[in-house]
Amino acid sequence: MAGLFISFEGIEGCGKTTQIRLLEDFLKLRSHDTVLTREPGGTRLGDQIRKILLSVENRGMFPVAELFLYAAARNQHVEEVIRPALKDGKIVLCDRFADATTAYQGAARRISGDFLEQVHKMAAGGLKPDLTILMDLPAEVGLKRAWERNEREKITGKEDRFEQEAIEFHERVREGYLMIARNEPSRVKVVDATEPADSVRQRVVQEIMKIVK
Fold first, then answer.
1. Alpha-carbon distance 124 to 127, whole Å?
2. How many other CB atoms sit within 10 Å of the CB of residue 99?
3. Total of domains in the chain
4. In a domain, 213, yes or no
5. Per-residue pLDDT at 150 exceeds 90
């Protein structure tokens, strides 16, 4: 039996990582076999690439170089983790996937959509999630949350290259995500991430239970 592929997306500080972990707990309590993973990352190679991509030491990275690093991490991730888990009938929960590339490198970095599609086909064979939860909130709210989180976790200045982008960058990312949702409403479900965490969790569960048997 084929598994299910569910991704969580959103701008910095939207709360997707918290919600995907809550969903994992919810599904495990109901005896579903789940795999929780993330991008960039999810594999040894992917985690090494993640450090390069998020480090503020690499602020001079060019957009296409950034795109190819994400693609390399994604190819390893898909072949090593995601496809085998789906083949085994598991529910894969992924913290970001190809929609993030469309929003960040496409809408925000302004790389052509046709080029992005070609890269995704090479990296992941065009694989798409069965369901995507888009955690949406204003860019300024998300950035404030992200900065506060980085202070708490003491990662400021180490892995916050994207948080240091101008607010206009994050607004373009958000609009990129919302454009994806408008184009694919059957797959991408928008959740108001300004709501309290428990309300967000309930909405996420409602969407998940529509496809999880």
1. 6
2. 24
3. 1
4. no
5. no
Which residue carries 């960058």 as its tokens? 169
Peptide bond into 40 cis (omega under 30): yes
Residue 185 lies in a domain: yes
φ/ψ (deg, to 5) at 136: -110, 135
Q: Name the β-bridge partners of 191.
A: 135
This prediction's pTM: 0.93
Residue type, 25: D
Strand partners, 134: 9, 190
Residue type, 89: G
For residue 41, CA distances in Å to 36, 115, 178 come to 11, 23, 24
- C-beta of residue 29 within 8 angstroms of C-beta of residue 20: no
User: Buried b / exposed e across 69-94, counting CB within 10 Å, b at 16+?
Assistant: bbbebbbbbbeebbbebbeeebbbbb
**Beta-bridge partners for 34:** 91
Q: Which CATH number fits the domain that encloses residue 67?
A: 3.40.50.300
DSSP reduced 3-state for 93: strand
DSSP H helices, 1-138, are 16-29, 44-54, 63-77, 83-87, 98-101, 113-124
pLDDT digits (tens, 9 = 90+) for 92-138: 999 999 999 999 999 999 999 999 999 999 999 989 999 999 999 99
Q: Is residue 47 part of a domain?
A: yes
Domain with 84, as residue range(s), is 4-208
Q: Are 137 and 11 in contact (CB under 8 A)?
A: yes
56 within some domain: yes
